[in-house]
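request received
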Amino acid sequence: MIDRDSINYFTEDGSEGAVNARMGEDINPRLAEVMASLVKHLHAFAKDIDLKQTEWDYAIDFLTRTGHMCDENRQEFILLSDTLGFSMLVDAINHRRPSGATENTVLGPFHVADAPRYAMGQNISLDGVGESCFFSGRVIDQNGNPIEGATIDVWSDNANGYYDVQQPDIQPRFNNRGIFTTGPDGHYSFRGIRPVSYPIPHDGPVGEMLTALGRHPNRPAHMHFMVTAPGYEKIITHTFVDDDEWLTSDAVFGVKASLIAAVEQGKEGDTVWKSSFDFVMTDAVA
Amino acid sequence: MIDRDSINYFTEDGSEGAVNARMGEDINPRLAEVMASLVKHLHAFAKDIDLKQTEWDYAIDFLTRTGHMCDENRQEFILLSDTLGFSMLVDAINHRRPSGATENTVLGPFHVADAPRYAMGQNISLDGVGESCFFSGRVIDQNGNPIEGATIDVWSDNANGYYDVQQPDIQPRFNNRGIFTTGPDGHYSFRGIRPVSYPIPHDGPVGEMLTALGRHPNRPAHMHFMVTAPGYEKIITHTFVDDDEWLTSDAVFGVKASLIAAVEQGKEGDTVWKSSFDFVMTDAVA
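response:
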């Protein structure tokens, strides 16, 4: 016979303990730590708000529809994580840097690994659409010394607010993408377009959520940068155009004060915008 | 120009506030309450364990695969909720009852709305497989008075551990299902099979999770009951066979002490098992 007194019965008050006590003793200790915390917070969430059965029904359906929205071209769970600030939080936890070092922000879904390599100063806007913008600056260490051989991988949407991979039949491949390598002076420069804001895909469950929450799906205009150099910690970040109307309310919470970069007119008669930003790298973690 | 000082920048410490401050003022107040708590606990989870970027990557993939596993015959997100004790917690929160009243437990995925109606005492085992078992008892109020006109909807797996809806080509339709209505004495009785334990579907992401956690997918043998009567709160529950090896470790945490029911041999020479259980209903909430 079963010793009924030995049963750790599930109760509302003891729910977390009943679930976590089930974990085996020989499992991966990190998994045990993560799952115990997940169960603790999930259960506390339901208790704090007395989650209704109908709300649970809705959540199951929402998660299912979110899963069904995911395919090779669309990752609705990443959008969900992004719009709940969870992606930026994980990014922050994993990229704590000393003051003065360039801050990280989320990679986003539009990076492509094998963009063309260009010489400094070249133009990455292959469709010629949009207001021309000259990006420049330096890659330096925390003491201000130039870093030679740093790789700067940049990407942005086009003037209509779409990345090339979203419009493979319309935009030239690798439109508004390029990879540059610094020389001894650590300088970089290239010509692209003045970035424009765009909405994240919002025709799915995450878009419904944003609407219900009274939020918009827009990201302020930005240029993506991935900066790598031997011996230094990789920087994945954006620079944000300083006068964008969505700067105060980025749908994915990517804006940091230190990443706002002025986009200015050149001298009179020069139609090319200019944006300057220095990247300050930290030593790679051993 | 944008007033940069007005921006509620996202920071690791202030992440919850930055996200929740975005909600509009005119949204559904319950939605605002639920989402604020969800964001609070999600962010606290990531912070408590310093969630790694690679773990986030894994979680996105896990959720995506869970979503892709869901179709009209399989609900992997419900299995996930069940195995994390979340379904039972929501059930507990929504069905707090006074001592002595029959406790609720989860509906599960195998209820069918339109089972056949039978007279008391009839047999619901249509395939004739399994050890015969006679279920009986009373439907009463909290004062012990019989409830007339109560509807008792019952369902169980067959002797091989599968419900009819899982084996539409093998089992007769409505095998081990039936609906009974009490007379003035409140009594019910029917013949079925002695319930057998079975594993929840575990060939998907949830099964992987259970394995990684050192847990098994089994549910102890049980008979499902849904009891309704005009003026009383609906009871959705199971009775659990008292000597089942999985009684102490139900994969979905459905076992409650008050729901364990003896399954006993009748008098010598009688091969029919007997299980008796009384349902104590509470007044419907106005």
